[in-house]
Amino acid sequence: xxxxxxxxxxxxxxxxxxxxxxxxxxxxxxxxxxxxxxxxxxxxxxxxxxxxxxxxxxxxxxxxxxxxxxxxxxxxxxxxxxxxxxxxxxxxxxxxxxxxxxxxxxxxxxxxxxxxxxxxxxxxxxxxxxxxxxxxxxxxxxxxxxxxxxxxxxxxxxxxxxxxxxxxxxxxxxxxxxxxxxxxxxxxxxxxxxxxxxxxxxxxxxxxxxxxxxxxxxxxxxxxxxxxxxxxxxxxxxxxxxxxxxxxxxxx
Length: 252
Description:
Layout: H1 4-10, E1 13-19, H2 24-30, H3 36-44, H4 48-69, E2 78-80, E3 86-88, E4 98-104, E5 107-113, E6 117-124, H5 131-138, H6 141-152, H7 157-175, H8 182-186, E7 189-190, E8 195-198, H9 206-209, E9 215-222, H10 228-231, E10 233-234, E11 244-248
Parallel strand pairs: 1-11
Antiparallel strand pairs: 1-5, 2-3, 4-5, 6-9, 7-10, 8-9
Helix pairs in contact: 1-4, 3-4, 6-7
């Protein structure tokens, strides 16, 4: 991952993909990279699978950010914002880097950018019970119409819904408002300059695809520091998609 900083200099965002599958040896290599608080969180889990995913995922995040900033993974200061979005703490020395993480089961995506606040979401394709009622609660009118059209054209309802939901989640993560911003989204409010793109060619780990699993993912970018409550406006997302460099990340 030493070339991450080079990729970030020439792309709006870089996408890293990592597997959360881990044997005892990999877990053993991950634990020393965790902070004291992260290790306490790991120890507090009663579910061994959840604990393992957390440890491997957090250590991978530290390695990825370390590769981007030229810092040792154990020196990366991580903090959580008001709505749980991770960010760099003060110890990063003012280095501009925005990132977002998403994971489902044993796959994790990390999106990074030097210029934009970033949000990413990932979902495993599956059936969605009462998808129409759920869509009415979370999608804007135009999105709801697009979803209905896709289903009527023969697309699987669960797949179509999750594609739209990933876009919504990515948007809310980029803004940093969390689910609290859903009503503004449904009302059609968007930060000026927001860009959203479906991630269709993600190089998922082979073990994550071995049982026929398929995934939906989306990425959103907006200007750093956007406060949706004060600065959002009725505006369509820009047609120009961000330039994204996919990269596999190894935590071995």
